[in-house]
Design goal:
Length: about 90
C-alpha cells in the first residue's frame, strides 16, 4: 500500500481573514432575526390603523429582517449575491 505524503501547509482549512467578520455577522444574524421577528409579532398584535409610528416601526423591522436574511445568505458566499447585480 502506498502512503500519500500530503503536507498540511499546502491546504488551508480556515481563511483567517474571514473568521472575525463571519463571527460578527453570525452573531448579528443570531440576535437580529429572532429580535425582529418578536418585534413584528408584537406590532402586528397591537396594530391600530391610526397609529403612524407603529406603521413606521413595522416597516423598519421588516426591512431589517430582510437585510439580515440576505446578510446570512451572503455569509455563506451564495453565488447569486456575489454576482453584484448593481454593477451598471
Amino acid at each position: 500500500m502506498q502512503h500519500l505524503n500530503i503536507s498540511s501547509s499546502s491546504f488551508t482549512i480556515l481563511n483567517t481573514k474571514a473568521i472575525a467578520p463571519s463571527v460578527v455577522l453570525g452573531l448579528c444574524c443570531l440576535v437580529g432575526v429572532p429580535g425582529n421577528i418578536a418585534v413584528i409579532m408584537l406590532i402586528v398584535s397591537n396594530y391600530k390603523r391610526e397609529n403612524f409610528t407603529l406603521k413606521l416601526m413595522l416597516n423598519l423591522a421588516v426591512s431589517d429582517l430582510v437585510s439580515l436574511i440576505s446578510l446570512h445568505l451572503d455569509l455563506f458566499n451564495s453565488p447569486w449575491l456575489a454576482a453584484q447585480p448593481c454593477s451598471v
